[in-house]
Write a structure and sequence with these properties.
elongated; alpha+beta; 8 helices; 4-stranded antiparallel beta sheet; two-stranded antiparallel sheet; about 280 residues
Length: about 280
């Protein structure tokens, strides 16, 4: 039997009963793609849920991550469900520790290096998120490079300057309930701003990818200020990540989880820094 074969665009095409077989056969099929932005979104939104509901748009990527964690013995097969809940957070943290990471680098939120290593031979990673240097600053307050760039982008939208009263990676203020202990969380002074300017600042921060709220003295032991959390920062403290969950569902990010009191005119569609930049 004559089986002619030709090489065309990197594929061997066999003229056998009209069947075309790609070069390398089925084993050469493309690996699944994991979108890190979607995985990080789920890692913030899913854990506080009362059930195991999936975050729209994120489930397919989360499933690939969970399958890889399960295959390596870090996650029970029953938890491979596309919901990045507390079990997945714990499993991913264990995976990070197995790589030699510790502290913020083993917090259960994927970094580009650990996510790529987990997917070796299983999936490829797209849309990686990087916080950059953890020793950057904005207005003299410590933040990471990603948060610094976000603040600069929000600042550029305003006719006045954003002034930080508290940065990230600090536990100096106990009333912050640990949200500033890691990256991505800042407080902004508003004493010199009018009410309208305060809300416009909240709007600018939300536009570039912060979960941001205007805080007032009736809510806690603090003066008027804006509290902002950089959505999808991989260094977030658990409390700050839970505030992103609240923001996603239109709540205030406080212990009472009440409705967001931001006037409708100053609200924007949920987004994050990388999506905003696109």
């Amino acid at each position: 039997m004559n089986l002619p074969a030709v090489l065309s665009r990197g594929a061997v095409v066999f003229a056998l009963l009209g069947v075309v077989v790609p070069f390398g056969g089925p084993a050469a099929a493309a690996l699944p793609v994991v979108d890190m932005e979607q995985v990080m979104l789920a890692a913030q939104v899913d854990p506080p849920k009362s059930g195991t509901g999936q975050t729209p748009g994120a489930a397919a990527s989360v499933l690939e991550v969970e399958r890889a964690l399960s295959a390596k013995g870090f996650l029970a097969s029953g938890s491979v469900d596309g919901h990045y809940g507390t079990s997945t957070v714990a499993a991913y943290a264990a995976w990070q520790r197995s790589l030699g990471y510790s502290g913020l680098d083993a917090n259960g939120y994927p970094g580009p290096s650990s996510l790529t290593a987990l997917g070796s031979g299983r999936y490829t990673v797209t849309r990686p998120i990087s916080t950059g240097s953890r020793t950057s600053s904005y207005g003299g307050e410590r933040v990471n490079a990603r948060t610094r760039d976000m603040l600069a982008a929000a600042d550029a939208k305003l006719a006045w300057s954003i002034t930080l009263s508290q940065g990230s990676y600090t536990s100096a203020n106990p009333s912050s309930a640990g949200t500033h202990d890691a990256g991505g969380a800042v407080d902004i002074s508003v004493a010199a701003l009018s009410t309208t300017q305060r809300w416009q600042t909240v709007q600018a921060l939300r536009t570039v990818g912060f979960a941001a709220w205007l805080r007032n003295p009736s809510q806690g032991d603090w003066p008027y200020h804006i509290h902002a959390v950089a959505i999808s920062d991989t260094d977030l403290a658990i409390g700050a990540a839970n505030q992103v969950h609240d923001y996603y569902f239109g709540k205030n990010g406080l212990a009472n989880h009440a409705a967001d009191d931001t006037p409708t005119a100053y609200r924007v569609a949920f987004t994050w820094w990388e999506k905003y930049r696109r």
